[in-house]
Amino acid sequence: MDYFYSPPEHITNDAVTIEGEEFSHMTHVMRKKEGDQIRVVNGKGTAFDVVLERINQKAAHGKILRTYEQYHEPHVNITLGVGVLKNPSKFDFLVEKVTELGVKEIIPLTTERTIPSHAKVDRWQKLALAAMKQSGRSYLPVVRELMTLDEVLTQRDLFDLKLIAHEEEQPESIRSLPDGTLPDNVLMLVGPEGGFTLEEVLNCRKAGFQTFYLGERRLRTETAAVVMAALSILSQHS
User: Fold this and answer.
1) Which tens digit of pLDDT belongs to each residue from 62-108?
2) Which of 60, 116, 118, 235 is the most exposed place for a label (fewest CB within 10 A)?
3) Which positions ≥6 away from 56 have C-beta within 8 Å?
4) What are the backbone dihedrals phi and psi of residue 43, each rounded to the nearest 5 degrees, phi first?
5) Is the CB of residue 103 less than 8 Å from the CB of residue 80?
6) Hey, what domains does the chain have and what are their CATH numbers?
């Protein structure tokens, strides 16, 4: 069944309205017509089976047949903070893949070793929307505005567990996920090209972060972000 997105304000107890770019895609590309059944997600964890009842020039209106809560969503809420990269296409890749894996929030970070000073938040949010639909999720990850590491540390109390990837940790300091499970809200940080500085790592430790060792090989930022997301989210299904 084809997936489409409609925000919560366009959904009632028994009806859905699809407008804007999603409507154009549905009618002009996917060629949906009245009587077709589709699956609609609200970006907040709920999916709906919908039959299209009325299509006009600007919107499609459908009747909800069935509702699914927390549809294809992990039990843990992962916020991933990642240093923005020199090559924009690599951050595009990162956003797509961590969305597919189930990350709930993405924070582009500026750090001491970060070279770009801006973030393409609108583009990354659109990529997250496409990846949400492609992967069959029902929650649309939020891509935050560019933040400094210090700004992220001021929000540390919002999270039950805080992890920072650090390539200089010794193998004996590898920290496995506690008891193979994670608390509800987890914050994970991955540095830019060149990684975090020692001072940044020490500041994170003082703020209650645990270092997370990803192995002997030096991983690119986008690889490390995908590995951290996969290890945390997929382990909850094992």
Assistant:
1) 999 999 999 999 989 999 999 999 888 999 999 999 999 999 999 99
2) 118
3) none
4) 75, 0
5) yes
6) 3-69 (2.40.240.20), 77-237 (3.40.1280.10)
* Kind of pairing between the strands at 185-190 and 77-83: parallel
Alpha helices, DSSP H, located in the chain: 20-24, 88-101, 121-135, 149-153, 198-206, 221-234
Using CA atoms, how far residue 16 sits from 9, 45, 46, 52, 189, in Å, is 9, 15, 13, 9, 37
For residue 59, list its beta bridge partners.
Answer: 19
Q: Are 62 and 51 in contact (CB under 8 A)?
A: yes
Question: Cα–Cα distance between 149 and 86 in angstroms, integer?
Answer: 18
Q: How far apart are CA 218 and CA 140, in angstroms?
A: 31
Cβ density class 3-40: b for 16+ within 10 Å, e for less: bbbbeeebbeeeebbbeeebbebbbeeeebeeebebbb
- pTM for this entry: 0.91
Tell me how far apart the alpha carbons of residues 202 and 208 are, in angstroms, rounded to a whole number: 10
